[in-house]
Design goal:
Elements lengths: L2 H7 L4 E4 L4 E9 L2 E7 L4 E7 H11 L7 H16 L9 E6 L3 E10 L2 E11 L2 H42 L16 H11 L1 H4 L6 H27 L65
Length: about 300
C-alpha cells in the first residue's frame, strides 16, 4: 500500500449536507496531490490526482489566477477541512454536486487572493476493491470489535452481580431503593434488545449516525488494517498483493496522515467458539475472579 492509499484509508468519514445531496466523504490532501472518496449510500466515487493534474485543471478553470499547484492544493485543503468537520467554511465557499451512474462532480466556488476561484472534483465510480478497502473490511472489523466489547461488558455485569450478592450476604443494604437493579440475564436482555431497540439501532438513514458515533472506532480499525498489510508486505506474504492500488492512478508520494489512531483501540480477534450474538459467558467464581479495569473502544 502506497502512502496516498494509507493516508486516505485512515481518514474518518464525514457527513456533508449540500443543497441537493447528503453525502459521506473523506479526503487526503498534501502538497503533491489529493485523494477523495464520496458516497451517497447508493454508489461510491473516487478521484486521485497529482500536482501536474491540479496545475492543468487550475489553468482551465481559473485563467486569471497564476500560482504553483501547491498554493491551489493548500487552498483546497483549507476549504475541504472545515467542510468535512461540519464547521463554517472560510471565504464564503459554496459547494454543489452533480452525479450520474458512472461519475460525480463536486463543484467548489470561493475566492483566492481576492479573485474568484473555481474547482471541480471529477470522481469516477470506485472499483470493488476500493469499496472493500474503505467500507466492507473496516465495517466487518468494527462489527467484530463491537461484538467482543459486548462480551466483555456482559462478563463485567456478571462480576458486578456477584459483588453485589456478596455485599448482601454480608448484611449490606441499599440506602435508596431506587438504586436496586435485577441480576443481569444475558438471554432475556438480547431478546428484549431485538424487539425493542434493534429497529432504531440499525437505522442507517442518510449515514449521519455512522459518521457522528463510530468514526473513532472506524479509524482505529482502518489503522489496524494498514499495520497488518505492512507486516505482510515486509515479510513478502502473497496476501499483501490485495493491498495493491485498485485504481491504477500514478501520483506523487504523499505524506503520512495527521495523528493516526492508535492500534490499541483496533478490533481484537473474536474469542473462540462464539455462540449467538454475544456468545455464552461463563459465570465467574467470585473467589477466583480478579477484576481489572477495562478500557472502552471509544475512550
Amino acid at each position: 500500500m502506497d502512502e496516498v492509499e494509507q493516508g486516505l484509508l485512515v481518514q474518518p468519514w464525514a457527513w456533508l449536507q449540500l443543497a441537493e445531496n447528503s453525502l459521506l466523504a473523506k479526503a487526503y490532501i498534501t502538497k503533491q496531490g489529493y485523494a477523495l472518496l464520496i458516497s451517497d449510500l447508493q454508489g461510491v466515487w473516487h478521484e486521485q490526482v497529482d500536482a501536474s493534474v491540479v496545475s492543468q485543471r487550475a489553468k482551465e478553470l481559473n485563467k486569471r489566477l497564476t500560482a504553483p499547484p501547491e498554493a491551489f492544493l493548500s487552498h483546497l485543503d483549507n476549504l475541504l477541512r472545515p467542510l468535512l468537520k461540519n464547521i463554517d467554511c472560510p471565504g464564503k465557499a459554496t459547494f454543489s454536486c452533480d452525479h450520474g451512474a458512472e461519475a460525480l462532480i463536486l463543484r467548489v466556488r470561493s475566492e483566492l487572493s481576492g479573485l474568484p476561484f473555481y474547482w471541480n472534483f471529477h470522481c469516477i465510480l470506485a472499483s470493488p476493491s476500493l469499496v472493500s478497502q474503505h467500507l466492507i473490511r473496516p465495517l466487518m472489523g468494527m462489527s467484530l470489535a463491537l461484538q467482543c466489547q459486548a462480551r466483555e461488558l456482559a462478563t463485567l455485569l456478571r462480576m458486578k452481580d456477584l459483588e453485589i450478592q456478596d455485599y448482601q450476604e454480608s448484611g449490606a443494604t441499599l440506602s435508596r431503593d431506587r438504586l436496586k437493579t435485577e441480576p443481569f440475564e444475558e438471554t432475556s436482555f438480547l431478546e428484549q434488545f431485538m424487539v425493542e431497540k434493534l429497529p432504531e439501532a440499525c437505522s442507517v438513514g442518510d449515514g449521519r449516525p455512522f459518521v457522528t458515533s463510530l468514526q473513532n472506532l472506524y479509524t482505529a480499525v482502518a489503522t489496524q488494517e494498514v499495520q497488518v498489510r505492512q507486516k505482510l508486505e515486509d515479510t513478502g506474504d502473497p496476501q499483501a498483493s490485495g493491498s495493491a492500488s485498485p485504481h491504477g492512478t500514478n501520483s506523487q508520494p504523499l505524506n503520512q496522515p495527521e495523528e493516526p489512531a492508535s492500534s490499541a483501540s483496533s478490533h481484537p480477534e473474536p474469542e473462540k467458539e462464539p455462540t449467538g450474538t454475544l456468545g455464552p459467558v461463563q459465570r465467574p467464581q467470585l473467589s477466583k475472579v480478579k477484576r481489572k479495569k477495562l478500557k472502552g473502544l471509544f475512550s
